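quick one before i forget lol
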Amino acid sequence: LLFATTMLSAQKPVELPFTDLTQDWYMDSIRYVYEHELMYGTTDTTFAPDDALTRGMFVTMLYRMEGKPEVTGNTSFTDVPANMYYAPAIAWASANGVVYGTSETAFSPEGKITREQMAAMMRRYADYRKLTSSTWVDLGSYADASSISSWATESMQWAVASELLYGNNHNQLQPTANAQRAQAAAILQRFATKIVK
């Protein structure tokens, strides 16, 4: 796979072109996703680390991680125009059970992705790659465990057990909060180094 070979090639750290990175905690992750071409800037000089990530953007990142395989045909989602950058990614992910729509006919590619939606997509991608471990954790100790949607519970248990998602300083997982671009970079780096390897 393309991703596996890019992971192995030794590269000197590239100088990030972004002038809007101010926090130490995300620097390594953003460098990682930028070097491995999983995420790009919102402009030539900005990464917009605090901006919310859309569903279309995140699926595109998983598609890049897979090496952008050939896609034939379009999706059945009526809100995914064939000429949009995320169309091949959604077609690939939908055909392989990595993503589902927000309804039978809609994917909501421009909708902001929540942390539990991200966990579900990553778990399905790990299943697709036959990399899912049987490690699960009880999330009852988190203050907001009851706000996890029932369809996302197992994915969140897996994501926390796999050290992809962590709770915040208030012991909250924030499952329905919108994921920010910097958070997505950190989660993708963890996924690539802990799960895909």
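fyi The longest helix spans residues 181-196.
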